[in-house]
Each structure stands twice: as structure tokens, then as C-alpha cells.
Amino acid sequence: MSCVPSRLRVAIVASDSQARSRLAVLVARSGHELVELAASPDAILTDDFINSSPPVPAVAIGAVEGDIAGRLPADPTARQIDAALRAVVAGLTVRGPNPQERGFGPLAEDGWPVLTPREIEVLAALRDGLSNKAAARRLAISPHTVKFHIESLFKKLGATSRAEAVVKGLKRQIVEI
Q1: Residue 150 in contact with residue 109, Cβ under 8 Å?
Q2: Within a domain: residue 106?
Q3: Within this chain, do residues 86 and 139 fall inside the same structural domain, yes or no?
Q4: DSSP summary character for residue 140
Q5: What is the extent of the structural domain holding 147?
Q6: Are 64 and 49 in contact (CB under 8 A)?
Q7: Torsion on CA atoms 154, 159, 164, 168, rounded to nearest 10
Q8: Which residues 6+ apart lie within 8 Å of 91 measured at CB?
Q9: What is the C-alpha to C-alpha distance for residues 8 and 89, in angstroms, rounded to an integer?
Q10: Are residue 51 and residue 122 in the same domain, yes or no?
């Protein structure tokens, strides 16, 4: 990860002049310098589809398709714009909340949940019928941390109970008996 300058040079790719003006205001409010695309910007802010991979990291506002490192909801704050631009310039991926996903819904990549190694260990402890305290002792973490991982598992697996999480983990061969 590279060092991100305090003030980024940001180009705008917009669908029309009104959108360009709105995005320019967001760039200014976020404390960054507005430059033309030909001026080698650090990042791009867009509301529009970019037909090919952008030449530098980009943040898209709203429902935008394409190979974009950052995506934010249609009404981001200047602070969100600043954070997203800095993150994509540093090589990270940014995804804003999806308003259609509320509560405990599955998070998936290619139809399969992406679990961390620790979440898999906690799922195995659930499979073994351990309480939060017993799982915490086995994994040398706090019961609060176990609870945090269980909530994450529920969300990622689309489960509403420990038993349902284990069944889904077994079906998807995340854990075995």
C-alpha cells in the first residue's frame, strides 16, 4: 500500500454538465483538487459508466456498472467521498451499503459466502455444540469476540440460529462432521 497524499488530484467523469458540477462541489468539499482527466489525476469520481478499466482508481456514485474500485450510494457526504477516494488510491476496494440489503442477509461472492479463517473456527465450535465461553477458551479469544463472529456468520450465511448456521456450513462444505 502506497502513501496517500493529503490532498488528492481528482478528475470527474460525468454523464452531463449538471452532474459534473455536483461532483465538482463534492470534490471541493472533500478537500481535494479538481483536475482534468488528461492531467494524470490520483483518482476519478464518476456518476457514469466507464467503458473500460479506468487509468487510475475510481469511485462511482450510484448504480454504476464497470470495473470500479469504489462504489458509494447516490447521496454521499463529502466525508464519505474523501474516505472512498483515499481508500481506492491506497489500493483498497470500497462498497457503500446496499439499501436492498437490510438486517441479516447473505453476503456472497459467486454464490458462496466468504468467511475468514477465524469465522470458520467459530463455525466449527458451533458445530461441536460449544457455548460462547467454551468456544472462547478453545480459540483463546474473548466471549465477546466469539459473539461478534457468530453475528457475522449469521449475516454471511443468511442464518437466524446457531443450528441453521451449522447446517448451512455443512451443506456448503465449509465445515465437516
Answers
A1: no
A2: no
A3: no
A4: T
A5: 117-171
A6: yes
A7: -90
A8: 1, 2, 57
A9: 9
A10: no
Cα(129)–Cα(132) distance, integer angstroms = 10
* Radius of gyration of the chain from its Cα atoms, rounded to whole angstroms: 21
DSSP annotation string for 69-110: SEEE-SS--HHHHHHHHHHHHTT--EEPPPTT--SS----BT
* Cell digits of residue 176: 465437516
Place of cell 451449522: 166
Q: Are 116 and 39 in contact (CB under 8 A)?
A: no
CA distances (Å), 167 to each of 107, 111, 139, 150, 155, in order? 17, 17, 21, 14, 14
Domain for residue 60, yes or no? Answer: yes
Q: Which residue has 474500485 as its cell numbers?
A: 69
Q: 0.85 cut: is pTM over it? A: no
In a domain, 108, yes or no: no
Q: Chunk the chain into consecutive blocks of 10 residues (it has 177) and report each block's average pLDDT, rounded to whole numbers.
A: 74 87 89 91 83 81 74 85 89 69 48 79 94 95 93 90 91 82
- Give the pLDDT confidence score for residue 103 in this predicted structure: 47
CATH of the domain at 136: 1.10.10.10
